[in-house]
Design a protein that fits this description.
The complex is a heterodimer of chains A (372) and B (513). Chain A has 372 residues and is mostly helical. Chain A has 15 helices and no strands. The chains are: A mainly alpha (372), B alpha+beta (513).
Chain lengths: 372, 513
Amino acid sequence: MKTKVDQLTMLQYICILVNSTIGISVLSLPRWGATNAGTAGILATFIGLVLFFIFLMAILLITSAYPQHNFFEIICLHLGKTLGRIVTIGFSIQYVILTSVIIREFTEVMATTLLRETPVEITIFVLVLTVALSTQKSLIDYGYINYFYFPFIIIPGLLLISLAFPSGQYSNILPVLGNGITLSKIFITSIDIVILPFFQIGLFTLFLVIPNIKRPKKALKGGVIGWLIITMMIMLMTTVTYAVFGVEQIKDEVWPVLALTRTIRLAIPPLQRLDVFFILFWVITGFTTIFSGYLIATSFFAQSCRMSHTKLPYLFSPAFFLIARTFDNHVQLYEFMQQIGHITFAITTSLLMILVIITLFKKRRTANETPQ
Amino acid sequence: MARKKTRSNPKQTDALNTMLKQGEREVDPNLSTNIDKLEGFFDRDSDFTVRPFKLIGKYPAAIIYLDSIVDKKGINQDILKPLMNQQSNYSFEALTFEQIKTVIYEELIYQTRGSEETKWTSIIEHILRGYTIVLVDQIKLAFAFDTFDVAERSISQPEAEQVIRGPRDGFIESLSTNISLIRFRLPVPSLRIKSLKIGQLTQSKVAVFYLDSIVNPSLLESVIDRLNQIKTDRVLDAGYIEEQIRDAPKSPFPQIQYTERPDVVVGNLLEGRVTIIVDGSPFGLIAPATITQFLHTPEDYNEHFLISSATRMIRLIALVLSLIMPSLYLAAISFHPELIPTRFAIAITSGRTGVPFPLFLEIFIMEIAMEILREATIRMPKQIGAALSIVGVLVVGQAAVEAGFVSPLTVVIIALTTIGSFATPSYNIAIALRLLRFPMLLMTTLLGLYGFMISWIIISNHLLSLRSFGVPYLQPLSPGNWNDLKDAIIRTPLRWLKYRPDALNTKHKQRLK
């Protein structure tokens, strides 16, 4: 029996959701929209977030039927044991790949900002080791860690937005519907955005959190609040980046939000260059997302073997390391990110759809069975 | 008259039993046989004393004690004098065995604490604890009276926890005096003092203090449980216990607070914590402890809340700076010179011209020099300590800079770091962060700001997963708690502090009924 102390509170759950979703990929986010949809990129990002919300609700619906069960148990209940195990291990592998991509993206950012001469292998190795070290801790520690880091992620983000806001130009974000772009193109762009690995990681943290939450009935409320915070942060950041740079300049930047930090300047002498300070906080942001991805991968695997994830933190580290170091540069990385994103997104969507349909049927049946 | 039964240690009992032959485990009616047996056991120890006398001038008897740990005046006045009083008109011949016992116990002797013993093991244990044993010929019984008295130092101001405004008394080595200091401040019936004996050889008395009406029973249970599980031959100070009952023995961070101040103990008891005091140690252990507690001083509650809050924040900043300052300095100069404004950069480079070492080596050398200096000053007698600090300041500070050995800015940074760690009220947490400064410095040397951030994350994650008796170490920062935040980093007005810390799960949350 879990005691009160061993369970996550709603605030911790919101923090996990927000920290896992807002990751290092936010730095490149405005570029995806700008390249494919021009000024309509802002709208596309928003539609992407709405899609994200729909997926969030789907997971909340699936878990609401079995609030005490973990991912593997839910899948087994719906699809049977053998298939359940295959699917769970499959998802574990999927998250190894997605997280490795983010690890590489993180090291690419580090390589361009902080460690220009250090080989990426070392950066990757240190990061994977740090995350593995943290994965040894229990899920409740995961909640504490995310709760603690939440302000370090939100406050610098808001600071960045408010400092960059004055240099933005209203005309840069217009027209909101884009120039000569069809609605379907905007929609495709928004799918391109929502397939980004960090959204998928944020989404699946729910499967880890909800079985351990103190009041499962509040999961929906927490999910909505979490989504609102994510949407606010991402939309503000994207809009301000568009407003400051305009579409054409965003297209030229690999990480437009990072470029945004370079434009900020305070008159106080030691703080003339703020970008490095922001990078320090981006390390935390990146860490929380990668930590969640790593935890999802190891937990799913551990669940399918019916053991605790704390026992195998180092099992996957070579896989993360090897996948993350295969890319030659960020161009290749982002190409792969789109491809793998589309595939995993299709898999996730189909699985969630099946689960939602089964859940709805089961719910109707139980509703019919209960005497009026 | 209070009679107290003392439990004997099974191991020692075994050893004694093998020494004493079968059938001789109990007191013999013959006085001289008994004395021989005890003399054999103590083997003419220099302080072992046997004083034969005639009970009310008629019956052969003897008192036995270790004269190094007894109050001789008390023995003369309250044991020997009444027992040898010839004016006494008792005639033991007419009395039964039971009646003699009662007469000696209830009518003759003036001692508050005494007992009747028949087993040798227990008699020997009593002698070793400063009791005086009275043996009477033809009586198969020994009377033990508490005459324990050893030299104690007087109550003085705690050296390690001085305050400007606050009580000046501190614990001493004697447990009973320490208990009196706590009782004096906390005259409530629900104060419980549970006594344990720990250490197979030393049999040290350990007292667990708690307020029955407040403390969380499961916390108390786990404290007692962990104390009972301690396996050691000796407990010479509170530290021996602290190490064996903490949640994560490998962590450098202290998970139990220690204090020399009775007022701190009382304050913590009232919040629902448990205090452990070992006989022979002037330190009380307070459990559970969270990180913010180590930044508090008793003065915080005496000064105005705004001032207390400000000083607490200063302490926190000092503590954090003592960990990160050298690493940040190293990262800024070696990896990210673009961070430094031009005017500063010129000053720094001119200071560094001629310094033969790379910066990280310079910092490492200075840090180690500083640690040596600190360690030396602690051990030195006060008079030499002053001379040493002058030498330290002159040699390490000025001469090293003038000789072009280190740059002035490095000296400033290292000095600030060291002072920062001394600004923390608790020595044990300051020393933990001082230690962690070195791995952090190493990581920064290798990986710059990235390495710095990674070590910061590792340290914070470690802190976030630490528990002290089940209470999260960073409570109330994470998991957050609004009520507990009122007295953590800042100190809100006392009238706002209506509730005891939530983290402790006390019986009565509200301080006032």
